[in-house]
Amino acid sequence: MNTSVASTKTPNKQGSHLSIAVIYHSNYGHTKRVAEAVATGARQQLPESQVKAVDVHDVDWDFLDQADLLVFGSAVYMGSVPAGFKTFMDETSKRWYNREWEGKWAAAFANSGGLSGDKLAVLQQICLYTMQHGMNWIGLPLMPTGHTETDLNRLSSFLGLMTQSGDAPPDETPCQGDIDTAIWFGDHLAKTIIKHQPIAV
User: Residue 169 pLDDT > 60, yes or no?
Assistant: First the structure.
């Protein structure tokens, strides 16, 4: 199962009005690379302009507020999201109070240097955050194809996407299997919101 090559598929016309924001925090570029891979996968179903990777330090709030799906991506620092990502979460408190994101779709990914790296704790933290906003969570329903660096979902995560960055530049790590899984995840997320979009009457 090879998803390493960017798709040449024509976007799904049924999703022509839907949009996805992939919101990430990345100090060294590794988590950004995963975010861009998720966006690449989503663009297999949606027009390019309707899928944006958004850095938490340069947030397009208007795009986030109108987006149908918010995908949150974070590195793992000391068993938690880093301070920069937590600041972003806190900045949405008025949106939480006014229920502005209620009913939106949500998903997440976590990246760390270790195979485990306590990524599950970060996915759970982000999931709880989206539940407070009243959002609808989408997991990663992909059975692992194996556990090598070329396999899909090699870390056997189902709550969300887990990726691992080694001690190397972002163009070398995470490994190809993790990037391919991120592309698969983005494609799956886009297909899900297309499938469940409200029926026009």
Answer: yes
Total residues belonging to the chain: 201
Distance CA 74, CA 4 (A): 22
Q: Look up residue 193 and give its two tokens.
A: 């919101």
User: Helices marked H in 11-165 — which ranges?
Assistant: 30-42, 61-66, 83-91, 93-97, 119-132
For residues 41 and 182, the answer to whether their CB atoms sit within 8 Å is yes
pLDDT digits (tens, 9 = 90+) for 5-36: 455 566 766 667 999 999 999 999 999 999 99
How many DSSP H helices and E strands does the chain contain? Answer: 6, 6
Q: Exposed e or buried b for every residue in 42-76, given b needs 16+ CB within 10 A?
A: bbbbbbeebbbbbebeeeeeeebeebbbbbbbbbb
